[in-house]
């Protein structure tokens, strides 16, 4: 199965030349480290930067240059900075071609829960609701199961929703799955992972084609 960088490497294959891409907190931020050769993309962060690069080396760290998750980042040549209102105008105006988000749960109808666990203190939803409400192309990066081994791909989400029927594709440590017609459709399996293992780890309805190719990373 894949580690977090493996998930990010597979999602990087979804990038297309010239796209503007928003990377959510967690695994999605790692995608910037795995851009395929020959393409140029602009990574946007809702705290007000367009043109994020990969994570900095220790010598490159600038404590004043951070992403929305408060991680230090690098800026590519030509990067621009702006206020939060402008950033969310870009998002709400649908000027971002791909949004990559982490999630605690995803349902077979494409619902996503990624901001709150009841009983735990949180500062707020942040930009997640704007992102899922405005983006037409949402890919979720997540582990297939939680720390207790329970599936995070469910018939319906049990946690408070961030968005409804908005997720198109999920990439986990076990598989790539598309969501359509009220079901998870198995597209690829991670290296060394069997279809049976994916089925056992998926609580929601899973459609399995006759042939399931292994991811090429």
Features:
217 residues; alpha/beta; Glutaconate Coenzyme A-transferase; ten-stranded mixed β-sheet; three-stranded mixed β-sheet; 13 strands; globular
Explain what this protein looks like in three dimensions.
The protein is of the alpha/beta class. The chain has one domain (4-207): Glutaconate Coenzyme A-transferase. Helices cover 14% and strands 24% of the residues. The chain is built from four helices and 13 strands. It has helices at 4-12, 84-92, 128-134, 195-200, and strands at residues 20-23, 42-45, 49-52, 75-81, 98-102, 105-107, 112-113, 138-141, 153-154, 169-171, 175-180, 183-189, 206-207. Strands 4-3-2-1-5-8-10-11-12-13 form a ten-stranded mixed β-sheet. A three-stranded mixed β-sheet has the order 7-6-9, with no helix packed on it. The radius of gyration is 17 Å and the shape is globular. The two termini are 12 Å apart.
Overall shape: it is globular
Strand tally, please?
A: 13
| Cα Rg | 17 Å
Order of helices and strands: HEEEEHEEEHEEEEEHE
The order of strands across the largest sheet is 4-3-2-1-5-8-10-11-12-13
Main beta sheet, described? 10 strands, mixed
Into which percentage range does the β-strand content fall? 15-25%
Quaternary structure classification:
single chain
Give the topology, please:
Elements: H1 4-12, E1 20-23, E2 42-45, E3 49-52, E4 75-81, H2 84-92, E5 98-102, E6 105-107, E7 112-113, H3 128-134, E8 138-141, E9 153-154, E10 169-171, E11 175-180, E12 183-189, H4 195-200, E13 206-207
Parallel strand pairs: 1-2, 1-5, 5-8, 6-9, 8-10, 12-13
Antiparallel strand pairs: 2-3, 3-4, 6-7, 10-11, 11-12
């Amino acid at each position: 199965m894949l580690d977090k960088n493996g998930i990010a490497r597979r999602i990087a294959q979804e990038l297309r030349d010239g796209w503007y891409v928003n990377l959510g907190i967690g695994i999605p931020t790692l995608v910037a480290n795995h851009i395929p050769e020959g393409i140029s993309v602009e990574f946007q962060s809702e705290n007000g930067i367009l043109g994020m690069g990969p994570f900095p080396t220790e010598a490159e760290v600038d404590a004043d240059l951070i992403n929305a998750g408060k991680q230090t980042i690098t800026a590519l040549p030509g990067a621009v900075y702006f206020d939060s209102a402008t950033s969310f105008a870009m998002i709400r105006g649908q000027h971002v071609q791909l949004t990559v988000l982490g999630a605690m749960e995803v349902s077979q109808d494409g619902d996503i829960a990624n901001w709150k666990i009841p009983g735990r203190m949180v500062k707020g939803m942040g930009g997640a609701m704007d992102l899922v409400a405005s983006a037409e192309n949402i890919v979720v990066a997540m582990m297939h199961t939680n720390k207790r081994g329970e599936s995070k791909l469910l018939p319906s989400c049990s946690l408070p929703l961030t968005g409804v029927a908005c997720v198109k594709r999920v990439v986990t440590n076990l598989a790539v799955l598309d969501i359509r017609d009220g079901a998870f459709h198995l597209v690829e399996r991670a290296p060394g992972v069997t279809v049976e293992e994916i089925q056992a780890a998926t609580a929601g309805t899973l459609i399995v084609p006759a042939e399931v190719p292994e991811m090429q990373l």
